[in-house]
Amino acid sequence: MTSAILPTYARADVAFEKGEGAWLVSRRGERYLDFGAGIAVNSVGHSHPHVVAALVEQAGKLWHTSNLFEIPEGERLAQRLVDATFADRVFFTNSGAEANEGAIKMARRWQHVNGRPERYRILTFEGAFHGRTLATIAAGGQKKYLEGFGPKVEGFDQVPFGDHEAMRAAIGPETAAILVEPIQGEGGIRPVPHQCLRGLRALCDEAGLLLIYDEVQTGVGRTGKLFAHEWAGPEARPDIMTVAKGIGGGFPMGAILCTEEAGSALAPGTHGTTFGGNPLAMAVGNAVLDVVLADGFLEDVRRTGLLLKQRLAALRDRHPDVIEEVRGEGLMIGLRCRVPNGDLVSAMRDQKMIGIAAGDNVVRLLPPLIVRDEETAEALRRLEAACVALEQASAAAPTAAVAGAR
After folding, report:
1. Among candidates 215, 263, 211, 275, which has minimal Cα distance to 237?
2. pLDDT surpasses 70 at 400
3. The pTM is what?
4. Quick one: CA dihedral 247, 250, 256, 260, positive or negative?
5. For residue 213, is pLDDT > 70?
6. How far apart, in whole angstroms, are the C-alpha atoms of residue 266 and residue 268?
7. Cα gap 171→124, rounded to integer Å
8. Which is it for the CA torsion 271, 275, 280, 285, positive or negative?
9. In Å, how far from its chain's centre is CA 393?
């Protein structure tokens, strides 16, 4: 039977009907260890009781009113985010792409209201991914996402990844801001060095630019800090930061966090959203923060991430023909492969384990932040079995070729 869904995804032949913690159960009753978390979305796992209770309670009261009225839970969530970060203001959205669009508008508008309307261009790193809208695919600059959609939206320039001098040289009289992911997710779990983030902050101060961090994938505890740029210290603070994925724990929501100075550019009527920040989303967002900001939670993410990374390094040593490199921070880990990364993802799925392919021939491991030690140990067993299966298939291939020649 042909699906009525537009085939923009090459979907795996499995459908899930329920989940609990780090586990998913398919409609066939198979249990999968979820080390993809919906691409870093299910931050506190599947069916977390506190988040479910908050959603059910709010769903029984009020779903949506629009931003024409005060939304108390949104005020509360915004203040909590401000208290925990560099930010003074928050604007809620529905997705990471919407948040990035809003951040781009904010940066351009800030230059405009400060008497520099010619400054509208945004500098980004090659290999970046900032969303699927026309502006955000232009910001990322990757040909595979741009091809066939007409002229690239004007105003975005890419420089080689992590090249500070190239970034400096690219700044011109029309440059408004620098937009970077502290760790490229879709680009292959490529961390921007901490000294580079600090250098970008200094560069923006020197040139009168705004610094924007895309923390859609890296944020809300994923790296063991609430936000990944915190690893580089206060000298790397942004002016604007975008958030999504993990902040809703599976419910679609995002946010733009900004300083008072940057946010002052968006006066009433200059920007808006229909669904962003509605009561249902805000109840879920507050429940997720309850979990992530609890005493010891982020420390446990750091401990689990370090343990997992050490064990993965040993796995790489045992299977060097499959895994070339282990990279990442916290529970945002990448395995750079010597085989096609899709082959490892498929072999993992055969072992009832989920991983996510990324650029640079990397497989991402993005388990829920509540993953337990026994589940990371089980993940290593399943990854080992996947590596062995790939090695055996590779060893059998030449034999089969010789037999076929005869």
Report:
1. 211
2. no
3. 0.95
4. negative
5. yes
6. 7
7. 11
8. negative
9. 33
